[in-house]
Amino acid sequence: MKHTIKLIAISTLLLSATAVQADWKSDLKDAAIQKGNNTAAEKLGLATTAPAGAKVYIISPKNGDTVSSPVTVQFGLSGAGVAPAGTQVENTGHHHLLIDDPAVDLTKALPASDQVVHFGKGQTETSLKLKPGKHTLQLIFADWKHQPFNPSLGSDKITITVK
Ligand SMILES: [Cu+2]
Fold first, then answer.
1. What is the pTM of this model?
2. What is the CATH architecture of 55-162?
3. Phi, then psi, of 64 in degrees rounded to 5
4. Which of 137, 130, 125 lies closest to 63 in space, CA to CA?
């Protein structure tokens, strides 16, 4: 009797060890598939579907404000989350600030320049040095590979005057 109990215990142990191994293998397989899909999406420039109902807006300054430089720009987002660039988590992305209306192709990964500023660490505000005069600001929220969502998620374009 004692012997039987021992055998059952051992076979239970073996069964759970096999289950753990299968889990581990399928996790590894899933990770490999995900990595392959990510590489393909990046190479092919596939846009990520925009999180439903997400909105991007500039909290401050407000359209028409007169401000002094440096200007604190606060980024607003609802219906989606912020994640650092390169981190693929569903329904997340990072902010990009377009300064003075640069031409950008919203179907491709955004370039980086003085006028297209990436916030790849997941920042939600910045301090911006601007020359005196009128300037426009617009946010574009893009996915882990800097590519705008489909449909694209952007704020209204605001105009401010720097003293
Ligand atoms: Cu970016």
1. 0.80
2. Sandwich (2.60)
3. 90, -5
4. 137
For residue 162, the one-letter residue type is V
Tell me the CA–centroid distance for residue 29 and ligand 1, in Å. 29
pLDDT band at 162; cut points 50, 70, 90: very high
CA of 95 to the centre of ligand 1 (A): 7
Separation of 112 CA from ligand 1 center, angstroms?
8
Q: Where are the domains of the chain?
A: 55-162
User: 64-122: per-residue pLDDT in tens?
Assistant: 999 999 999 999 999 999 999 999 999 999 999 999 999 999 999 999 999 999 999 99
DSSP assignment of 8-36 equals HHHHHHHHHHHHHHHHHHHHHHHHHHHHH
